[in-house]
Amino acid sequence: MRHAVTLLALIAVVVSLVVLQDARRGLTIESFAVGQTPVTRYARQGADGPVVVVAHGFAGSRQMLQGYSLPLAQAGYRVFAFDFQGHGRNPVPMSGDVTALDGTTQRLVDQTAAVIDAVANGGPVALLGHSMATDVLVRVARGRDDIGPVVLLSAFSQAIDATHPKDLLLVTGAGEPGLKGFAVEAAQMVDPGAVAGETVTAGDVTRRAVIAPWVEHVSILHSRRGRAEAVAWIDRAYGRTSDVAIRHTGWAILGLLGGIVALFGAVARVLPVTPVAAMPPTLALSQRRLAVVTLVPVVVAPVVSVLVDPQGLPVLVAGYLALHLAVFGLLQLWLIRRWGGRWGAFSPLAFVLLLGWSVVFGVALDRYAANFWPVAQRVWIIAAMALGAVPFMLADALLTHGASLRRRFVLRGGFILSLGIAVALNPFELFFLVMIAPVVLLFYAVFGTMGRMAGRRAGPLAAGLALGLVLAWALGVSFPLFRA
User: Fold this and answer.
1) What is the pLDDT of residue 357?
2) Taking all residues of the chain, what is their mean pLDDT, rounded to a whole number?
3) Could you please report the per-residue DSSP string of 181-245?
4) pLDDT of res. 312
5) What is the DSSP letter of 96?
6) Which end of the chain has fewer CB atoms at under 10 Å, N or C?
């Protein structure tokens, strides 16, 4: 059975790499900077098609929009994707009032305009953006006369009206109920009878709303329907015809990353099995103790952290989250020791293997899906986050070592609940913690799985320490740098 799993994982990795590399075949991909803004250019050799500028959403990066950048480049366009301030590898923090149009939004509008000025070739520039970027792009287009077709994914912008933007495609996922209505309403500004999937025109204004099936706010980035519509819309505006294959890149990314995780099972078998005497037994927890070790941190961590309200880390909610993780983890470690739990022996090999395979995962993620490498400004933030993440993941490894799925679900669900309590206590400052929850759940699914593979052979101590560092890294690169 183990060999079959390894073989299937290897096949998934190879097939996925073939699909993902095929999407890049024949393209020149090069990075440069406009001021301090990192930009990636995607184009076929000698391409002379119109320029398309691509912008990502909140907590995103250039890599996250490759699903659209690559087919547009294959269609002959010169595509330029960039990292907003505070995002990806952009070292300049976001700044200003996020609630005011003349605050953060205006700074992002100015940044986008500078990128357009640097890459425009004298003809109309097409714009494509996702989520947060949609409002920015609409406002950029309003102030310029060199903007061609605009494609907005998961859009919401109060700057859209009946005459602006003139040439607009809105693509929304079927799993985005509120935004679906907005997309159709934007088309109905031009023709009150407009429905999803219909192109409407009034004078020189052309608009279309599309509902992409089976996708939501993130998976829309690899929707085949959405990408085909985007290429066709921009082709229509420029009088071009493209015959571009839209690859199954979303499934390929899942296959690649899932295969890498599954292959760690084979890698972990190089670890010597820790003798039973040196392996800490699964911590026996009665129903009462399970409730205590789960609920006490759930209540105490958000209350203490909100009262202390730590500042100083230039990443949204990072200071608060580091303290929250530390309080949560240290409380659980204290209870574990009080109840006689043992950490067991430390395996340097397991520690190195787990960190090394996490780097392999990170390389694949960074190339094909999302930024995973920090700029220099984030390194000390990751170090500070580790002060909370290491005790948190060490406690998690000890409590879930050899535990049932039900116990893991209860313990880890408790942490997600504690984040919800923190948001309820201080919604204005801590709202962005809501976005941490999916990151943590993905972390458990990916790195938690690899940690259990290593822990079964080498014990939980090395796995907990390694995953604490990986969690600090993941959180440190995921959320925007921000300076008030």
Assistant:
1) 97
2) 92
3) HHHHHHHHTT-TT--TT-EEEETTEEEEEEEETT--TTGGGG-HHHHHHHHHHHHHHHT------
4) 64
5) S
6) N
| Euclidean distance between CA atoms 235 and 226, whole angstroms | 14
Asked if residues 114 and 135 have their Cβ atoms less than 8 Å apart, the reply is: no
What residues does each domain of the chain span? 2-250, 275-483
Report DSSP state, residue 122: S
CA atoms within 13 A on the CB side of 424: 9
pTM: 0.92
315 close to 480: Cβ distance less than 8 angstroms: yes
Give the DSSP per-residue string, 45-85. TT--SPEEEEE--TT--GGGGHHHHHHHHHTT-EEEEEPPT
pLDDT tens digit string along 288-300? Answer: 988 999 999 999 9
Question: Is the separation of the CB atoms in 105 and 135 below 8 Å?
Answer: yes
Helix crossing, 318-338 with 460-478: angle to 10°?
170
pLDDT of residue 96: 76
Residues 6+ apart with CB under 8 A from 442: none
- 366 in Cβ contact with 360 (< 8 Å): no
Q: Which CATH architecture has domain 2-250?
A: 3-Layer(aba) Sandwich (3.40)
pLDDT tens for residues 125-172?
999 999 999 999 999 999 899 999 999 999 999 999 999 999 999 999
Residue that the structure tokens 């700044």 belong to? 95
Report the amino acid identity of residue 240: R
Residue 478: pLDDT above 90?
no
Whole-angstrom Cα distance, residue 155 to residue 186? 10
Looking at the chain, the number of H-run helices and the number of E-run strands are: 16, 11
**Edge-first strand listing for the sheet containing 125-130:** 27-34, 37-44, 78-82, 51-55, 125-130, 147-153, 167-173, 205-212, 199-202
Task: Give tens-digit pLDDT for 40-64.
Answer: 999 999 898 999 999 999 989 999 9
Secondary structure percentages of the chain, helix, strand, coil, to 5: 55, 15, 30
For the record, the structure tokens of 295 come out as 């609920």
Instruction: Extract the tokens encoding 387.
Output: 């002060």
The tokens 């609920």 sit on which residue? Answer: 295
Q: How confident is the model at residue 99 (pLDDT cuts 50, 70, 90)?
A: low
What's the whole-number mean pLDDT along residues 402-428? 89
